[in-house]
From TrEMBL:
Cited PROSITE patterns: ABC_TRANSPORTER_1 (PS00211), ABC_TRANSPORTER_2 (PS50893)
Keyword Transferase among UniProt keywords: no
Cross-referenced InterPro entries: AAA+_ATPase, ABC_transporter-like_ATP-bd, ABC_transporter-like_CS, P-loop_NTPase
GO molecular function: ATP binding; ATP hydrolysis activity
Keyword NAD: no
Name the UniProt record assigns to this protein: ABC-2 type transport system ATP-binding protein
Length: 299
């Protein structure tokens, strides 16, 4: 396994307020990691620390298996604030300035403009760009020196639906080229659509770190009813693949602990003498899992 980043017990306090509370996780090469959490959960503070922009209170991290220094930061491209370019200069001119600062070759400019879909607009002034185009130009700028990792803080904030789709498709395209991506987002569907891995933060605490699929891989539940609800409830509770049974309106909600087809469940209940009059399988969404995690933390 190829670790790009390893964070160990990272904490940031502002006075008596703990913005990031003892979080640990690692990032493996070639994946897209989503730092997911509501506003104020500590995402930007975490990114600020691992980019050496915010001093941590405690904890440590390693980039590419080394203690962080300016050399490791050269291997990372990051956009953590709104893009800043010269408004009266063209996209190309702006990227030339960034390339000079980053000591990147000017030959990279067209390649990155092509990648972000702005090659035909390279002579246009930055001030005439839409918000989405500005964001894509910022991504091109961050990629000029071919970083191994790209860090984005709320990359689709403020964009219209078309702009959001373009940025998400771009992130997937960049990841397909082998760049590891870490993005902070408060949008569940963004993380679900774009990321392979997710780190869930709430009130500075890490609630989950792992693959999106795994977080999503709950086997779901069934909503079921029968003429004799008491017998149904008792029987459901005895079945080995059901962990919990609760009442939901006039029906029962049973949580599955393994993959089960509704037809199979129907058959098993029938074998126990129960004829169901309603049986629907429900797949838990990432959203459900997320709120469940937050609810568990608050309980
Ligand atoms: N310099 C600071 N001084 C005091 N408190 C701060 C400072 N920076 C951040 N905070 C607080 O730390 C908490 C975490 O903020 P952070 O910006 O990391 O959250 P976030 O998850 O990125 O949310 P958002 O998407 O709203 O930026 C917030 O309650 C914020 O008010």
């Amino acid at each position: 396994m190829n670790k790009v980043l390893e964070i160990h017990q990272l904490t940031k306090r502002f006075g008596s307020f703990t913005a990031v509370n003892n979080i640990s996780f690692s990032v493996e090469k070639g994946n897209v990691y989503g730092l997911l959490g509501p506003n104020g959960s500590g995402k930007s503070t975490t990114l600020g620390m691992i980019l050496n922009a915010i001093n941590p209170t405690a904890g440590s991290w390693k980039w590419f298996d080394q203690n962080p220094d300016n050399n490791s930061l050269k291997r990372i491209g990051a956009i953590i604030e709104s893009p800043k370019f010269y408004p009266y200069l063209s996209a190309q001119k702006n990227l030339e300035i960034v390339a000079d600062i980053k000591e990147a070759s000017h030959t990279k400019i067209d390649e990155k403009l092509e990648l972000v879909g702005l090659i035909s607009r390279k002579k246009d002034k930055f001030q005439h760009f839409s918000l989405g185009m500005k964001q894509r130009l910022a991504i091109a700028a961050a990629l000029l020196n071919d970083p191994e990792v790209l860090i984005l803080d709320e990359p689709t904030n403020g964009l219209d639906p078309q702009g959001i789709i373009q940025i998400r498709e771009l992130i997937i395209k960049i990841a397909e080229q082998g760049t590891t991506i870490i993005l902070a987002s408060h949008l569940l569907d963004e993380v679900e659509k774009v990321c392979s891995h997710v780190v869930v933060l709430n009130q500075g605490k890490m609630l989950y770190a792992g693959s999106v699929d795994q977080m999503n891989s709950s086997f779901g539940s069934i909503v079921v009813s029968a003429a004799n609800m008491e017998t149904l409830e008792y029987t459901l509770k005895t079945l080995p693949f059901i962990s919990k049974v609760t009442h939901e309106n006039s029906k029962l909600l049973a949580v599955l602990t393994e993959e089960k087809d509704p037809a199979d469940i129907n058959k098993i209940l029938f074998e126990h003498g129960i004829v169901v009059n309603h049986l629907v399988k429900r797949k838990e969404s990432l959203e459900h899992q997320f709120f469940q995690l937050i609810q568990n933390q608050n309980n």
